[in-house]
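**Archive record**
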Amino acid sequence: MDYKSLIVNGRSVRHFKETAVDAAKISELQAFIADCKKLVPSIAIEAKFFAGDDTYKRLYGIAGYQGVMIEAPNYLVLLSEDKPQHLENAGYVGERAILKARDLGLDSCWISYSDRDMVKTVLNLDTDMEVVALIALGYASSTKKVEGIAKTGDNYSQAEMSVKKMGSNSERISLEEMVYIDKWGNSATSEILEERALLDAFSYARMAPSALNKQPWRFIVDGGRVILAIDNENYSGSYLNKIDAGIIMLYFGVILDITMFDSKWGFDNLDNDYGIPSNYKVVGYCNI
């Protein structure tokens, strides 16, 4: 897949045609999820697909955007073992599935939910695994508005933008705000990142979707290591921020995978605090 193009041309859709997704595409997507690179390969994860109308009715009032369920012809539910980093892994795998769906010509949207056990109950999922992601799939309706990342909130909408549009007028934070060198507050420049062969990875990572477009991530480049910190004092209890963390790890890592080497994220405790403020939490690092 051309990940750079898929990232640049991303969008989130709330309004879908009634046309069901072809069974062949569902099968291809399911096989892709089973075999794709995971953030934490040791965590078992399973994909379940559901047809639209009945599923929409079952989930109404349980899931949706601001309490309103999104009607789509098909839905993807990700199930996972409950282990350390399983929600970050869900964000990583779920967003990778969305990129694959986009490659297959499908539109999609993350759907939030408040009670994962209720989702299992109404969908008759007899499993010890936990529901970790709910994603709408289908084809965008041309008669409805397709909204960009700044307006669609916690459906993880992705703005239609390119690397060339990353200027001061962009809805996105700048590279200087997002990436530091050696310690917090020592802003990176495009020239420094270019010298370290990291400009592409950070430029595309900058386009990652996030809940309410908060873009909660910051990076510190410390020699051969890139540290990821997320803005949330309550990170340990936040589903959305853990999904965000997994998504940004994917966007940064997948560009490393195609431009430099196979990326791998670690989660051990780091001795150096790098001057990171108390409302940010280090959630992982990538050796480069």
About this structure: Residues 265 and 286 are 5 Å apart (CA to CA).
